[in-house]
């Protein structure tokens, strides 16, 4: 009985083993495939991750390069702007230089000018001589002014400043008590430059010389002629007032 039971148990174990063995192999096979699939997925994920990291680094590198290029471009634009400013300054300096040079050269060249309605050629240094003589007169140096204006009228006979120079010469002569010489000089303006604004003023000064010399009739006649010849001038208005006072 016992022997039979043992035998049956051995058979049962043998049968169970034969039945379970294929199932065990099947389970082992499924686990290996799963692990292999997982490892394969992990490998691909790692590979993709590395590629993504590589692409990210490349993108960052490109972004850094773009930023550097932008900075370089900004620097280049700044340099270009500086160069443009330097060029503009250089061109302006060159223009100023030539303008200054032209102005300096013109001082050594005769110039056509119109002074008090008289047009003529002004020689280099001519105006400076005239201005210097006028400054002496205004400073009360009548003798020096008389000398300088006489020199001027002799040196620059065709000057458009002649009426002005002769007018102030006549006034300097008057200040130096040379009434006769003053009248002759002033009369030269009326005769030679009748259209000059100084002509009416010269006639008014002549009348003053005549009145001061006791030539009342001559003075009154000069004033009347002044009003007739230059009726719309300030000198004519003054002549009317003086004429009314002469007896």
From TrEMBL:
The keyword Signal applies. Residues 126-247 form the Outer membrane lipoprotein BamD-like domain. Mediates coordination of peptidoglycan synthesis and outer membrane constriction during cell division. Belongs to the CpoB family. Residues 1-26 form the signal peptide. Residues 45-100 form a coiled coil. The gene is ybgF. The keyword Transport does not apply. It is found in: Periplasm. InterPro entries: BamD-like (IPR039565), CpoB (IPR034706), CpoB_C (IPR014162), TPR-like_helical_dom_sf (IPR011990), YbgF_tri (IPR032519). NCBIfam families: tol_pal_ybgF. Keywords: Cell cycle, Cell division, Coiled coil, Periplasm, Signal. It comes from the Bacteria. One of its GO terms (biological process) is FtsZ-dependent cytokinesis. One of its GO terms (cellular component) is outer membrane-bounded periplasmic space. Its main location: periplasm. This is Cell division coordinator CpoB. Residues 50-112 form the YbgF trimerisation domain.
